[in-house]
Amino acid sequence: xxxxxxxxxxQFAQRRGVEPRVLFWIEPRNRATGLxxxxxxxxxxxxxxxxxxxxxxxxxxxxxxxGLSPIxxxxxxDVMYHSITLPPFTDEVRLILDxxxxxxxxxxxxxxxxxxDTMEPLAAPIRFVKGTVQEAPRTVGAKRTASSKAPLxxxxxxxxxxxxxxxxxxxxxxxRRSAGDLGRExxxxxxxxxxxxxxx
Length: 200
Hints:
By secondary structure, the chain is α+β, with helices and mostly antiparallel strands. Helices cover 12% and strands 31% of the residues. The protein contains 3 helices and 11 strands, in the order αβββββββαββββα. A 9-stranded mixed sheet has the order 4-5-3-1-9-10-11-7-6, with helices on one face.
């Protein structure tokens, strides 16, 4: 469980209300260069910088259209799935979905509590989700409606532990199992063969 800062606890105790905000960080792969790039969104109205995990990051404001499903956090190796709905027609989201490849992109979701008077952070953002993007479907609503959306399906990092490793066997291993198995006899040199077009 994350430790709640004393300033945040003090604001809770005053019972004057709180200003929690969601920060979303994603590292999609650029389709043109193949390199991962970073982009942050928040449900604030304006762009702001926050000190996150020892570095200053910029989060672009998406307003109330940035929706996050209720977060379930448990201790252990259970795979937790979450979803966050992005506004599909903002420039930043179009960049993620069109120019970048978001599949299996690392993502993090933070919560930050703001002072209700100054709207400044009371403490460093707390990370609640760390995982990867599994799906990024888009639905386009009817004309002149606000029903278009782009929900990202995220899985916690425990998902990686459920993936099996590929099995590689050498020709020697196959022959020990079955003396007549020659399935990988030429595997070491086959990539070097030059076969003219049209010949078997």
